[in-house]
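During the practical work, I worked with a single protein chain and the tokens that describe its fold, as given directly below.
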Amino acid sequence: MEKYKILFVCLGNICRSPAAQAVMERIIAERGISGRVEVDSAGISGYHKGDLPDKRMRVHAARRGLRLTHLSRPVSHSDFECFDLIIGMDDANVDDLRDMAYTLDEERKIVRISRFFRAFRGQDCIPDPYYGGAEGFENVLDLLDDACNAIADLIVAGTLETEVFNS
């Protein structure tokens, strides 16, 4: 079986998307499906290219047993070819990704992370914590845990593609 490939995208790839990558990797390892899923993250902007995630995000993630070691990278067009699902953290990320897509098939791979919220259905995005305080980083991790567990449930059930692309 070929791996299902998921790319998480935020603006700078230093807070939300590397945290999403780490949360998803932890969940798929806990569920024993690491061999079925590949996860990565990237940013719309290349401003932080090569940098570790924001120190505050690393500290909050570490409190939950997550190590964020991903080095920031910008989204490239090859990502649209390599990944099956490209998940934007907010509307601006999704709009930027759609602008980058060359074809309708590539655009079809792009979804908002809020589509996977269960406990936080009232939220429409994962807000950028960069200019806020500690509560923003904790909120990001709570939202990611909710969405990534829902994604993992769909993968285990074998219904991710049906749920995402046929609804």
Summary: The chain is about 45% helix and 15% strand. Residues 134-157 form the longest helix (24 residues). The CA atoms of residues 56 and 128 lie 13 Å apart. The mean pLDDT is 95.
